[in-house]
Fold Cell wall hydrolase.
Amino acid sequence: MGIRRLVQTAFIVAAVSVGGVATADEVLSEANDPGIALNGRLTDLLTRERTALERIGVGRLERLANLPTRGARPDVPEGVEFSAAFLDALPTPKGGDAWSCLTEALYFEARGESIRGQFAVAEVILNRVDRAEFPNSVCGVVKQGTGRKYQCQFSYTCDGAPETVHEPLSFERAGKIAALMLGGVDRRLTRGATHYHTVAVDPYWASRFPRTTTIGVHHFYHMP
């Protein structure tokens, strides 16, 4: 079949797919028309794509569709510095549930760490949100396992102690880190880490997961 005939066939298949109408002299026999097979393959590919997208979940798709492009977020300063002085110069942020949950996690779980270490913990939480093995929201990740003995992913949610803020400045800095990370700051510290632990403990999974880095008193790992 010549190039012109192939083009005509493709046009006919498109017309049938879109409009559902084709004249009798345009329709070829199914046995000899490669367009029929092509249309079948396209239908199969679209079906697979739809199935894959459904598995990703609506939350992840929305985040992927709204990823900030470089330079598109004026509220995220360029040249982020991992220092208290840098954070203190930023305006006090406000946010929704994701910001509140991330701020609380950084304060109660990592305020004793360096600023760099707190950014790293925020990376782990957001890296988990992006993976299918974990809940697809910040609050879901932070509160995963809460209420089940030995199942808490973040210990402060299960230690029984009241979640009371005694260090307002540390809490404000945690909120600024949360706002920066949710705003699109590059996650370049932990190389995609999904887990961490303090150097004082040795969890069972540490020997199975590749360690990506160590920051302060925390080792960071990437779940295969």
Summary: The radius of gyration is 25 Å.
